[in-house]
User: Which sequence fits this backbone?
């Protein structure tokens, strides 16, 4: 005979859960309306509401651009209004809803206001904010603990941000093209100018292509990530002496403008990095973007790439490959790994040999010990090695060594192994 009381309890629990979910959606949609108003005014679209019981006591949208005040985040605006509405500086019976995870500054404001529940929609692992929220709100030294709920209307919250930045990028591109055309009108842009992206060997110097050597010999100027590193390589391939320009993360912006000027003047500019394809986890993007916006010719030569080489020989499925470059070292690292490791297909990233064991341990914390993994190092060199197996096995192999040498390519089987389904 069925347990009537048990069925009733389950129905009540389901009803309560449904009601909570409905409330979360309702208040997050109100925050989305505020986010849209911020976007219309030119601010990053983030909206926030503070709720006590069933009443909204505080509302806020980003006002950073409008006010010229970098502290006018949506959360700060909403908390200030809630404090005025309630007449108390502590919001201990309130829930804060915000479309984007709070940054560290806003998390600090939440702690000071003693808000016990935080609900947000979209996450941005690049800011590292998600980790900041959990660490700050759950720090026992701050004498405040809070419940954090994530992913409410996540798609809608992500979409409004994505759409805003897409429009912003198009507007910036249009402005840059107009500006560049004014500086380098069609009459002043000389024919023959081109930016060549020339891949170089990732280890074995015999991997240089004939076309790459020919291009470097024909170039009027060669832009190098490190001129000291590139000079011996150019000498090996009998590339005639010519101007070498350094191009690295510290001078990318200024050098990109100079590259545009040289290409516009008709020069043939070859861009190389220390190894592999320029622009792929190496400097190059800004120069490419600037030349494209100026209406100039950009051509990439095929050649060596560590991630493709490692993927081909890894033994992991190659139906879907997701390359994420170098993971964050500190800020946002956990959130970053949690996001990428949930994806189907094979995930590829780069890591320093000095941090490789720590990275694999961080991965194990998220995936567990049995996810398939490969660490490839010293690719194309004499001591090339692939360590293949479970995440735990790879950790055991690498951690047992006094040191690990050579830049590493890390490949992790996707949460869903597409190639074997």
Assistant:
């Amino acid at each position: 005979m069925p347990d009537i009381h048990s069925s009733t309890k389950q129905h009540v629990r389901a009803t309560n859960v449904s009601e909570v979910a409905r409330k979360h959606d309702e208040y997050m949609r109100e925050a989305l309306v505020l986010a849209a108003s911020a976007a219309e005014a030119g601010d990053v679209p983030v909206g926030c509401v503070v709720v006590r019981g069933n009443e909204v006591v505080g509302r806020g949208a980003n006002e950073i651009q409008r006010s010229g005040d970098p502290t006018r985040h949506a959360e700060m605006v909403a908390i200030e209004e809630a404090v005025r509405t309630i007449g108390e500086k502590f919001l201990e019976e309130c829930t804060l809803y915000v479309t984007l995870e709070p940054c560290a500054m806003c998390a600090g404001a939440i702690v000071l206001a003693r808000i016990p529940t935080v609900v947000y929609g979209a996450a941005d692992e690049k800011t590292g904010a998600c980790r900041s929220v959990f660490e700050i709100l759950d720090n026992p030294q701050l004498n405040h603990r809070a419940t954090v709920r994530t992913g409410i209307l996540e798609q809608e919250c992500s979409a409004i941000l994505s759409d805003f930045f897409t429009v912003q990028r198009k507007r910036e591109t249009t402005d840059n093209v107009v500006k560049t055309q004014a500086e380098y009108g069609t009459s002043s842009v000389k024919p023959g100018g081109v930016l060549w992206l020339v891949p170089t060997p990732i280890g074995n110097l015999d991997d240089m292509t004939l076309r790459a050597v020919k291009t470097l010999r024909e170039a009027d100027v060669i832009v190098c990530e490190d001129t000291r590193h590139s000079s011996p390589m150019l000498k090996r391939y009998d590339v005639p002496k010519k101007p070498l320009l350094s191009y690295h993360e510290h001078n990318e912006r200024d050098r990109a403008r100079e590259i545009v000027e040289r290409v516009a003047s008709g020069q043939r500019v070859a861009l190389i990095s220390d190894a592999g394809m320029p622009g792929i986890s190496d400097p190059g993007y800004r120069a490419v973007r600037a030349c494209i916006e100026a209406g100039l010719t950009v051509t990439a030569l095929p050649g060596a790439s560590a991630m493709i080489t490692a993927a081909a020989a890894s033994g992991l499925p190659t139906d879907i490959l997701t390359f994420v470059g170098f993971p964050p070292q500190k800020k946002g690292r956990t959130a970053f790994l949690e996001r990428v490791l949930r994806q189907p297909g094979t995930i590829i990233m780069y890591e320093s040999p000095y941090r490789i064991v720590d990275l694999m341990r961080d991965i194990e914390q998220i995936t567990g010990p049995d996810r398939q993994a490969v660490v490839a190092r010293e690719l194309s060199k004499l001591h090339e090695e692939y360590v293949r197996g479970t995440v735990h096995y790879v950790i055991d192999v690498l951690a047992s060594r006094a040191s690990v040498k050579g830049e590493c390519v890390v490949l992790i089987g996707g949460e869903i192994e597409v190639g074997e389904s």
Notes: Residues 8-15, 126-131 have pLDDT under 50 and may be disordered. The chain has 14 helices and 15 strands. Residues 92 and 213 are 68 Å apart (CA to CA).
